[in-house]
Amino acid sequence: MADLLVPGRLPAGVTKEGDGILTGHGPVRVDAFIDFLCPFCQRFELAAGPTLAGPPFAACLADAPYRDWPPYVTGRATALGVQATPTVVVAGTAVKPEPSSIASAVVAAGQGGAD
Description:
By secondary structure, this protein is of the alpha+beta class. It contains three helices and three strands; from the N terminus they run βααββα. It has one domain (30-110). A hairpin with a 2-residue loop joins β2 and β3 (93-95). The two termini are 20 Å apart.
């Protein structure tokens, strides 16, 4: 990941790594890697929407100044081992991309059951 250069301009609300949009607050980090053109991701988003509530991520890309951001995010995801979408990572551990699995992993991580 050292060879990836963070784009000069990032959308509002990005994570400290610059590779995602931060929504919500809590002690456990949940990363969702979603492809907006993927029908499985659309089903996941519809099912997990209340679990992963936040502003629409696509809105962050509506402006041309963020054109360099998606390739950076893709590079970071690849470097982190993401091979398919949707992929959900809770506190550093990949979990099944469904609301009950995400919720259980968040509870376990909050109790010290995951990194």
